[in-house]
Amino acid sequence: MLCPQIGGDVQNITIDAVVVDTTVPALSGLGTEPGLLLASRGDTLDTRVVVRFDSLPATFIPKGDTARPITSVDSAYVQFILDTLSIKGAEPVTIEAYDVDTTANDTSTAALLSLFRPDRFISSQTFARAELTDTLKYFISDSAVLAKIQSSTRLRIGLRATGPGSSQMRIISSEGGFPPEMFFRATPDTTTKPLTVSLLSKTPIGESILAANLIDYTVIAKGPPPAPPSVLAVGGLPARRVYILFNIPSNIIDSSTVVRATLLLNQLPNMAIDPTDTVFVLPQIVLAGKAVTDPAKAAQIIGGITVDTLKLKPGGSGSTNVELASAFTLWHTQKPDTLPRAIVLKSVIEGNSPLELRFSSSEDVVALRPRLRISYTSKVPLGLP
Predict the structure, then answer these.
(1) Among 23, 189, 235, 353, whose CB has the most other CB atoms within 10 angstroms?
(2) Distance from C-alpha of 255 to C-alpha of 377, rounded to nearest angstrom
(3) Matching CATH number, 4-27+225-377, of 1.10.357, 2.40.50, 3.60.21, 2.60.120
(4) Domain spans in the chain, listed from the N-terminal domain onward
(5) What's the pTM value of the predicted model, to 2 decimals?
(6) Tens digit of pLDDT for each residue in 3-46?
(7) How do 310-312 and 371-377 pair as beta strands?
(8) In this structure, how many other beta carbons lie within 10 angstroms of the beta carbon of residue 336?
(9) Element (H or E) spanning 208, and its range?
(10) Which residues touch 101 (CB under 8 Å, ≥6 apart)?
């Protein structure tokens, strides 16, 4: 392709091809993230975790006996799988458990946060940093579990991190493949095998998909300050994406072979939280057709175009390149009405991290606006010469 005698001259152009660029919410849905973020970072970040056990066993079968009603609970704990690379904070962290069962709207953050109060307190456990390994046993009040069993009510636990210092950890969720589980013995006899209780949510009634998502989820009590409206933002909490729609000359897409295509962005420093950490960004192609005119909705209908991720630090600044040659290959095969010339930039761990990248938008000064740099040839040399 790059040999003139085979592929012809390669032309290089840089154009202002952006028609729409905007920040949109990541509407993947509450409880759909592969991880549960439990964080206490002062005025910067406060997130809680909710796990639901809406079906508790009423009987157990002692070894060599018949089923008996459960009249005692011993050594109850919830087992969590942690992403140890996500842990922040060197000081001990105390995890408090609260009864967050309520008849209020399942998705009401305000209603849920109001239940983290003394009269709803279940128990607490303090962990030294060295005790936060990949498997975490969080012991809860035996009497609280027994009371729920005997009253035939559900157990919904809200977790809150506190302590002398800043702390943050990511718990693998049911969507991540390792859901939290509860264990307890129905007798003090240590030779008795513990009962296992799996996550379950029976509400909202009539909405099975949402109910399944809400078996475990993160609640954002306080998130980092959002980016200004005129700035493009990727990541953060609540999670956001960037939607960009291009107007590219048809002769380049329809009648040329694109050798390389690069989206030129200007990164703006974001020092709000962990500015030296790394955020992995994956460009995605928009698959929504012409009928979807709302960028926020179109940004949810996407597909992968590359396995290469962009690695950036929130506190970084300056020119950033996003390679989009694969997108041009797809656009060449489809008309704009079928496949819009649009992409989405999203964080690989969207909804699992407070880190947010920021970029200049088309509202910034001309020199800092997003642009496209394209290398293409008018000939299409396919196969052997």
Answers:
(1) 235
(2) 9
(3) 2.60.120
(4) 4-27+225-377, 45-222
(5) 0.89
(6) 555 556 889 999 999 999 999 999 777 898 889 999 999 989 99
(7) unpaired
(8) 16
(9) helix 208-213
(10) 153, 154, 155, 156
